[in-house]
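Input.
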Amino acid sequence: MGRIIKQIEIEGQPATALFDTGANYTYVRADLVQNAPRRRMSPPVTVALGGQEIEIREVCLVEGKIEGLPFLTDAVPVTELGEADGHQLDAIIGARTMEQWEIRLDPSTGELDLEGLRRREFKEW
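Output.
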C-alpha cells in the first residue's frame, strides 16, 4: 500500500500529482498556473501543508487532464510542494476535487478509478 502519484496535465503542461484524500484543497505549483483566473479569499484560510502552516489568500481555476480525461477545479497556487516517494510534486489533488469528479483511489493497486470522470454525468441535489 502506498501513495498514488500520477503524471497528469495542468494547463496543458505535464505535471506530477499526488492524489491525497487527507488534503481538503487541491494545490498546484504557481508557475504552472500563471495565467489561470484567480479569486481572492476573504478572509484568508490557514492550513498545514508539508509540515508548515500556509495562509490561503487566493485560489485559481485550473484546467487539467487525468489519463487524457479533462477536468476543471479550483486550486491553491503555491511556490513549492516538495517531494513524495522520490517524486518532485507539481500538484496535490485534494478531496474536494476528487469528490467533485468522483475520482476514487485504490491504494492496494496504486490505481485511480476514473469512472465518474469518464461518465461526465452527475446528479446534483
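The helical segments are 95-100, 115-119.
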